[in-house]
Amino acid sequence: MNVEHALRLLRDCAYRFWDDQGTDEIGALLAEARACYDAAEGADPATVAIGRSLIAAYELRLCTDVEHEVNSGWDYDMDGPPFNGVEEEDWDEVTGPAAERAAEAARAAIDADPEDPLVPIHLGHALSWLGDRDGAVAAYHEALRRDPGDDLAETCLEQLEAEVPHYQEPEPRSYAFVVLREESRISNSEWAESGHVFGTFGQVRAAADGMLGNSGDLTREDLDGFIKLELTVHRPGRDAIVVPDLVKHVPREPDGGPFRIEWADVRVDDISESVLALGRPVRIGNLLHF
């Protein structure tokens, strides 16, 4: 489907930003993703709106970080933008249109998924860059209302010297989905984290086994210190089911790969009701899942 291909393209863009490699190709990838949404007849309107908001947010990031290099230290994944960066950072006045488009796309998608903080964060970033403090604060408040544990929204409010409200934990989301958080060691002291979202448990099994199958020449003993996989099942009206360490379900023998999880030991039922629409990203637990 077009929306699923668009999500893969957006995931590719995210990884290029995170790795700071291949960023010169991001513009073309975003254009292709937009064409996918344009051609997605009959697709879930909320998924399309959220995807367009993510495209516009990435175009703003591309504009400030890559094309014009006016970012003086803003880490998109950890911090809010410099307030009124459109005037304080952008002396050549080149980022305003991209920020306006990001705000417009976020406003159009703000109610697409009233349980996910992703779009309000897009809106907050764009408005903060444009110098609209009240609008940015309201957007970050909305992100925190949707997910009180979202540290990025809280950090952005603190940067704006705004009140950080304390909301009660929300009810479980109204749709079912499974997320897989992957941490891979990149140095002795650093781990890289990525998030993946699925609509069925079968998709998760294939993805997790694929990740372990790419573990190279590692021994089984080394595997524990190389990769971490956490599985969480979300279902409407129920508490989340968390399997914190899938790697411990990999048999100790054989000592070499490709490794496989012993799924019979993972006590998780599949999901069937109100499944998340295909091709939709999810922000949960401070991480964007593709």
From TrEMBL:
PROSITE patterns: TPR. This is Tetratricopeptide repeat protein. Keywords: TPR repeat. TPR repeats lie at residues 117-150.
